[in-house]
């Protein structure tokens, strides 16, 4: 069942670039293998962490196909299909090859700052046209608008193929309202690595994670204990990762993740403007943390 496939840890996959700014498909293949070997439960492509706003639509379509083919059914795949124009999202649903995906992840429209009714109508339209189950993605810090618990629950009740939400509002009480009132089987996933264990303790199903790009095995150990109900051990394991997780976001996402991965020799550090590479101070911090906590 799709809902069972998408519990635990989904990794929000980065998009590596060559030094001249092209998509580095060899590095992307290595990253897919790295996180799968690290034990992640599923992969999320073309989300925030993939620098998707800087990718041209043809690049997105090729990346979607490449990731699907390289995963080759080893883990489930969630494909990012979002934007601030509803009609453009419908174009993505038509143009992307979604045959290898299990669900789509669709972000709240950014910049436009729609009303709650506007958000409802947007996602209603997306869900009516989607050939796959839909996971909502609420991230007010990037989109400029918060989708309330009430709007999320309205969509969950009205649209049978809206199966969950990635909640990155940072508001644990909002998440709790969703947990307390959701239809049976509706997934509540953390959009913040640092809130994962708290949300799971309250009944959430897991996280769509940035940190799992960098240290998948260690992060999976933490969440594995939480899935088994051993939250004390999960918290103990997480303490060794806490400083590194915070460092991932000091200069923005995915700047920190790419900086750490470049220090580990996995990818190059190249970003697409307006994002820039991590500072020397951040590189030095990751060098220390990787050695201190054996994060390779």
Automatic annotation (TrEMBL):
UniProt site positions, description: Part of a proton relay during catalysis: 48, 111
Per its UniProt entry, what is the enzyme's top EC class, as one word?
Answer: lyase
Q: What is its quaternary makeup?
A: Homotetramer; dimer of dimers.
Q: Tell me if Lyase is a UniProt keyword of this record.
A: yes
Enzyme Commission code(s) on record: 4.3.3.7
Localization of this protein: Cytoplasm
Instruction: Identify the keywords attached in UniProt to this record, alphabetized.
Output: Amino-acid biosynthesis, Cytoplasm, Diaminopimelate biosynthesis, Lyase, Lysine biosynthesis, Schiff base
Q: Where does pyruvate bind?
A: 49, 208
Q: What does this protein do?
A: Catalyzes the condensation of (S)-aspartate-beta-semialdehyde [(S)-ASA] and pyruvate to 4-hydroxy-tetrahydrodipicolinate (HTPA).
What residue stretch is flagged as signal peptide?
A: none
Q: Which organism is it from?
A: Alistipes finegoldii
The terms describing its cellular component in GO are: cytosol
Q: Which catalysed reactions does the entry list for this protein?
A: L-aspartate 4-semialdehyde + pyruvate = (2S,4S)-4-hydroxy-2,3,4,5-tetrahydrodipicolinate + H2O + H(+)
Query: What's a single GO MF annotation on this record?
Result: 4-hydroxy-tetrahydrodipicolinate synthase activity
Q: What PANTHER family does this protein map onto?
A: 4-HYDROXY-2-OXOGLUTARATE ALDOLASE, MITOCHONDRIAL, DIHYDRODIPICOLINATE SYNTHASE
Which superkingdom? Bacteria
Gene3D superfamilies, A to Z = Aldolase class I
Which SMART domains would you find in this protein's record? DHDPS (SM01130)
| Identification of the protein by name | 4-hydroxy-tetrahydrodipicolinate synthase
Family the UniProt entry places it in: Belongs to the DapA family.
Which residues are named in the active-site annotation? 137, 166
Q: Name one Pfam family in it.
A: DHDPS
Which pathway does it operate in? Amino-acid biosynthesis; L-lysine biosynthesis via DAP pathway; (S)-tetrahydrodipicolinate from L-aspartate: step 3/4
Q: What is one process in the GO biological process aspect for this record?
A: diaminopimelate biosynthetic process
């Amino acid at each position: 069942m799709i809902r069972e496939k998408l519990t635990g840890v989904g990794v929000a996959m980065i998009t590596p670039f060559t030094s001249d700014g092209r998509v580095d498909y060899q590095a992307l293949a290595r990253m897919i293998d790295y996180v799968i070997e690290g034990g992640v439960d599923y992969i999320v492509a073309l989300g925030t962490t993939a620098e998707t706003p800087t990718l041209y639509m043809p690049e997105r379509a090729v990346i979607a196909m490449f990731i699907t083919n390289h995963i080759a059914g080893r883990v489930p795949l969630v494909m990012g299909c979002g934007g601030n124009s509803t009609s453009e999202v419908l174009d993505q649903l038509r143009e992307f090859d979604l045959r290898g995906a299990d669900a789509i992840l669709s972000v709240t429209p950014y910049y436009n700052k729609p009303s709650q009714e506007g958000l409802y109508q947007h996602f209603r339209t997306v869900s009516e046209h989607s050939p796959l189950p839909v996971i909502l993605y609420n991230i007010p810090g990037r989109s400029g608008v918060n989708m309330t618990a009430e709007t999320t629950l309205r969509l969950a009740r009205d649209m049978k193929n809206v199966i969950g939400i990635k909640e990155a509002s940072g508001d644990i009480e909002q998440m709790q309202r969703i947990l307390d009132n959701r239809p049976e089987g509706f997934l509540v996933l953390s959009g913040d690595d640092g809130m994962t264990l708290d949300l799971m303790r309250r009944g959430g199903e897991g996280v769509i994670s940035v940190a799992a790009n960098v240290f998948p095995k260690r992060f999976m150990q933490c969440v594995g204990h939480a899935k088994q109900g051993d939250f004390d051990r999960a918290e103990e394991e997480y303490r060794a990762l806490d400083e590194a997780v915070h460092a991932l976001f000091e200069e923005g996402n995915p700047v920190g993740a790419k900086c750490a991965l470049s220090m580990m020799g996995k990818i190059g550090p190249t970003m697409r403007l307006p994002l820039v590479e991590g500072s020397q101070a951040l590189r030095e911090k990751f060098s220390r943390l990787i050695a201190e906590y054996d994060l390779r």
